Amino acid sequence: MTQRQKRLRVLYSFPHKIGADRICYTAWEQVNGLANAGAEVLLFPGVLHRPVHPGVKVVPTLALGKLRISYKLFGTMRACALHDHIVARRLKKLAGEVDIIHAWPVGAEQTLKVAAKLGIPAVLERPNCHTRFAYETYRKECEKLGLRMPPDHEYAYKPDVLKKEEEEYNLAYRILCPSDFVVKTFLDRGFAREKLVRHIYGFDERRFYPENGPRDRERGLIMISVGVQAVKKGLHYALEAWLRSPASKTGQFLIAGGFLPAYREKLAPMLSHPSVRVLGHRNDVPELMRKSDMMVLPSIEEGFGLVCVEAMGSGCVPLVSEACTDVCRHMENALVHPIGDVGILREHITMLSEDRTLLEKLRAASLAASSEITWTAAGKKLLQAYKDVIPVQ
Fold first, then answer.
1. Is 320 helix (H, G, I), strand (E, B) or coil?
2. Higher pLDDT, 386 or 228
3. What CATH number has the domain spanning 9-202+375-389?
4. How far apart are the C-alpha atoms of 389 and 194, rounded to whole Å?
5. What is the chain's mean pLDDT, rounded?
6. Closest to 329 in 3D by CA, of 338, 345, 318
7. CB atoms within 10 A of CB 38
8. Which residues contact 231 (CB under 8 A, 6 or more apart)?
9. Homologous superfamily assigned to 222-371
């Protein structure tokens, strides 16, 4: 039986609390998707925050029973380095028992070096754009808005993080990119295309599903923005476009998610408009999406945009920038505008407000495509990506 025919043995290394929020949730879904797709998964998380698929063998690196290392007290970088050291040491004893290694940023350098010595292909997840591109893009947008980021903000320039991540990029056998936008940021930095492997993320169809029954065409349009309201998500463009559109006279713009205080203060005049509802952090996002007509994400840079596929699965039409176009197709299942183009975004909002037939057409197309962008489908595509990059033996 060849390497490609047998059940693939995956060592999945994740240095954080797998099953928590944001990338921790993404990794959790990936592991479950791989197990459902038929992979044999050995999971080394820093901490297991939520149980995974019963077929996955879990060996935490930074926890023993109820005892856990505190990332906050120990320091995230130090915790990730310790995780990496432990995984690399364990890997030396697993030669011949692992077909491929899946690692995550900031906790992979030693693991990637040992994998190379043992001849095991190791892929590095890249949930966002090239870090240098992300830092520079975020800095320029903040300067344009007259904002200063706190030094501990995730997109504040951190030379130690950048140095480590760029070293990991070079050490990885392949880099896993969830979108063509991410691929481009690496190509622009001189990376060979064959080193960049495409896969996708997905959504949970058990939580994100459409509302039954027809929509009331006479009511005002409901637009929603979901997630951490960081500068890179472009909420300032969405607000300006909304308030310049006649849709704001009869409709509602719902904003779910927390803000950087300085950013919220900057947007305060627009946020105070009667048509805008700032909801804060919410636990009922699927229900909010089901009741909304469209989801807006005018990002200036994006890794994948999980909210795009969650919106599509909920029957909520995405209005997105060109940074979010992997599953969003202009005039097919979404409306896509150039990054930072408030005028075009305003036109798109107005178009859907005035043409409910087009809105229903895009909604139906979004729902039709949703079966191809679930986490189950993403797990199958990731497993195939592994098989495509493992050298033939």
1. strand
2. 386
3. 3.40.50.2000
4. 10
5. 94
6. 318
7. 12
8. 138, 141, 142, 145, 147, 155, 260, 263, 300
9. Glycogen Phosphorylase B; (3.40.50.2000)
